[in-house]
Design brief:
7 helices; mainly alpha; 152 residues
């Protein structure tokens, strides 16, 4: 009698060998769930769809390094979470976001308070995602993206 774990190990083994059918099966198993997850956090459905596409491209490109003992669910959602965080980071650093903040007419302390609240809300959301990362991943993100250090 084969278990789900055995089936997943076999699926991963075939996938690692370059089986397009195994990749298709993995896609069918997880694409809708990943899309729902990404839609919850992404700015738009199109962004979420793009993130899901990127997840599967990355999975395919790194198929040889996937371990048979690894949970595909965990792996795919970890990649998705990282890509969602990167998408949010790009949107914060985008000139459009800065322009939208600058376009707010200066209506005194109320406008400034609203801008600060929107930024603080966004910052808390991003930090929530960052805090879900492992200790090492969190340290790398903070040092490279928030503190401005390069990889070396």
């Amino acid at each position: 009698m084969t278990t789900d774990a055995d089936n997943q190990k076999l699926l991963i083994a075939l996938f690692k060998e370059g089986s397009v059918q195994a990749f298709g099966r993995i896609y069918d198993m997880y694409a809708k769930r990943l899309l729902a997850f990404c839609c919850h956090y992404a700015a738009s459905r199109e962004d979420a769809e793009e993130i899901v596409e990127d997840v599967f491209v990355r999975l395919w490109n790194s198929r040889e390094s996937v371990r048979e003992t690894e949970s595909l669910h965990s792996l795919l959602f970890t990649i998705s979470r990282r890509l969602v965080i990167n998408a949010w980071r790009r949107s914060v650093n985008a000139p459009v976001f800065e322009d939208s903040l600058d376009a707010c007419p200066d209506m005194g302390t109320e406008a400034q308070a609203l801008r600060d609240m929107n930024y603080e809300e966004f910052r808390c959301m991003v930090m929530g995602y960052i805090n879900k990362l492992t200790r090492t991943q969190r340290q790398v993100v903070i040092l490279s993206r928030l503190d401005g250090y390069n990889n070396s």
